[in-house]
């Protein structure tokens, strides 16, 4: 190497060292630029390709997904190393699939994995894991099962314990297929290893936290799902707001929705939407919109729900995300059921039901529809169709009991067999006691109270109706609360003026809600502004509207109200004063 080349390489090496320091500090944009400059200064025959790979990874983590893909294309023109070429092609397929997953892209990655299997099984396993995740995004659960099983087999061939990442993906796939028992069999023996995950230790650890949280949620192990998730979010908030978005918003909205923390779920979904543009992960948008629409459906925000369903479907159709299209329609179906438009509810819920029958998807806390479809069929006068869906739901919970699924199956059986309704509803409450899901339990108690009242057992009906009303009001479900209130009145209870519902978090705009919940964690206005990328004056403006709408005057009152409504991460002690 000539003297000039040696000097350039020395400078390139210094820039590379500086880039690694920035990367370690999560300054990904700065690291990417330094890696890129280092690669440009690398003399012919030097490690330019490797430095470009590191630049591409850094820039992708900073949100420059398109630029990262272009850099990887450049790498392929600079190297003929088979191992590096496979790794770069893997990264390119991964970016393509997470921006807009397609069957063609997934199948190309599978072919690449088979090429790598004989020379580098570890690399092949990582490719198969990504292909399994892409299959889930596409809605091809049968292929996801096959591919995740193939990844397990490759590790078994070397007599090794399967990597936790592969086990987590396999568990998530089985969870979506309703196999709760098999999810626990895979994850429970690895409990200590899961507890040791540092969600921000690496990009793969970030993804692993998400996958295992989803698997736990699918089996309705919400405590462990929430524990891993909240640990991930807490660490992310300390280190990097952008990475917090990728960890926290990915799973938080589902966990919070299921556990009855609807305001937090709504804020989480809205936060994800704000982060889509900066991260470049297009598949987040329809998913977040569909979840937001479901929250709005039960909160009585009909106009917002319909708008977000339309936007979710449009985005999902563009990227080929059939599950998100179905989930959005299920949200609209729930809204229509709530408002008594049963034929429209059936039409929308059938979109998800058709996907389930095609793919093997089952009711889980991630995707949930059968009990709503049964109720819509029943009210519309189609008991045979309702019975068909119920038989399938009962068969699923018989093989792999998920408590809330078993509870709503019993409630649905009560709907179709009114002569045995009390027996079935008693069984439903027994199942609800095993794994609390406030909204569905309140629906069961509302139904039970209604049955008792119609049988002239008014005194016995009131505790169930009062409990359901209290839950619906706490959650912020006005349409359902109105039903419970009407049943209570029919049972002989007269509501005093002081008992009328007051405005809650559902009255806030999305931005106001985010500010309110962040303040309720005990953060100062400055800290809220930094975390949400707002000015302090904007935070103060939103907070004044929050106080007006909630009828409060101090931060301590906001914190107390958030705690009363079951919001997560509420401040305690001195922070509340």
TrEMBL record:
The keyword Aminoacyl-tRNA synthetase does not apply. Keywords: DNA-binding, Transcription, Transcription regulation. It comes from the Bacteria. InterPro entries: Sig_transdc_resp-reg_C-effctor (IPR016032), TPR-like_helical_dom_sf (IPR011990), Tscrpt_reg_LuxR_C (IPR000792), WH-like_DNA-bd_sf (IPR036388). CDD domains: LuxR_C_like (cd06170). GO terms for molecular function: DNA binding. Residues 501-566 form the HTH luxR-type domain. It holds the Pfam family GerE. GO terms for biological process: regulation of DNA-templated transcription. This is Putative LuxR family transcriptional regulator.
């Amino acid at each position: 190497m000539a003297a000039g080349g040696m000097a350039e390489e020395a400078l390139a090496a210094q820039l590379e060292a500086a880039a690694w320091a920035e990367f370690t500090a999560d300054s990904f944009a700065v690291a990417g630029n330094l890696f890129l400059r280092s690669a440009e200064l690398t003399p012919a025959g030097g490690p330019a390709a490797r430095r470009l790979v590191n630049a591409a990874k850094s820039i992708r983590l900073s949100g420059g997904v398109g630029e990262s893909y272009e850099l990887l294309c450049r790498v392929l023109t600079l190297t003929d190393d088979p191992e590096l070429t496979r790794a770069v092609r893997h990264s390119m397929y991964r970016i393509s699939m997470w921006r807009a997953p397609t069957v063609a892209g997934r199948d190309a990655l599978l072919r690449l994995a088979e090429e790598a299997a004989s020379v580098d099984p570890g690399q092949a396993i990582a490719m198969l894991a990504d292909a399994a995740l892409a299959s889930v995004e596409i809605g091809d659960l049968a292929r996801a099962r096959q591919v995740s099983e193939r990844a397990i087999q490759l590790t078994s061939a070397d007599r090794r314990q399967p990597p936790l990442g592969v086990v987590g993906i396999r568990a998530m796939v089985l969870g979506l297929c309703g196999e709760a028992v098999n999810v626990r069999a895979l994850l429970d023996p690895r409990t200590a290893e899961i507890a040791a995950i540092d969600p921000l230790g690496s990009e793969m650890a970030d993804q692993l936290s998400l996958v295992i949280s989803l698997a736990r949620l699918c089996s309705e192990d919400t405590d462990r799902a929430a524990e891993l998730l909240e640990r991930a979010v807490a660490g992310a908030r300390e280190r990097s707001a952008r990475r917090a978005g990728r960890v926290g918003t990915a799973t938080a909205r589902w966990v919070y929705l299921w556990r009855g923390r609807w305001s937090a779920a709504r804020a989480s979904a809205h936060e994800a939407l704000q982060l889509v543009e900066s991260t470049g992960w297009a598949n987040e948008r329809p998913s977040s919109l569909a979840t937001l629409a479901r929250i709005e459906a039960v909160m009585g925000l009909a106009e917002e729900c319909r708008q977000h369903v339309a936007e979710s479907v449009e985005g999902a159709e563009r990227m080929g995300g059939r599950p998100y299209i179905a989930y959005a329609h299920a949200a609209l179906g729930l809204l229509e059921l709530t408002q008594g438009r049963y034929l429209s509810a059936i039409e929308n819920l059938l979109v998800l039901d058709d996907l389930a029958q095609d793919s093997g998807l089952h009711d889980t806390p991630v995707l949930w529809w059968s009990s709503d479809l049964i109720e819509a069929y029943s009210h519309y006068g189609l008991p045979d169709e309702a019975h068909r869906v119920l038989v399938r739901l009962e068969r699923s919970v018989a093989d792999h009991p998920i408590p809330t699924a078993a509870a709503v199956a019993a409630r649905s059986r009560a709907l179709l067999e009114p002569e045995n309704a009390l027996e079935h509803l008693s069984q439903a409450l027994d199942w609800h006691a095993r794994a609390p899901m406030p909204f569905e339990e309140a629906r069961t108690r509302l139904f039970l109270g209604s049955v008792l009242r119609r049988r002239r057992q008014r005194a016995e009906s009131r505790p169930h109706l009062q409990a359901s009303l209290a839950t619906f009001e706490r959650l912020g479900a006005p349409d359902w609360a109105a039903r419970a209130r009407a049943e209570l009145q029919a049972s002989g209870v007269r509501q005093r003026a002081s008992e009328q519902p007051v405005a809650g978090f559902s009255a806030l705009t999305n931005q106001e809600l985010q500010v309110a919940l962040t303040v309720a964690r005990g953060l100062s206005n400055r800290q809220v502004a930094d975390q949400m990328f707002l000015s302090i004056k904007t935070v103060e403006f939103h907070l004044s509207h929050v106080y007006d709408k909630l009828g409060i005057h101090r931060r301590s009152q906001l914190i107390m109200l958030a705690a009363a409504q079951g919001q997560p991460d509420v401040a305690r002690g001195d922070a509340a004063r």
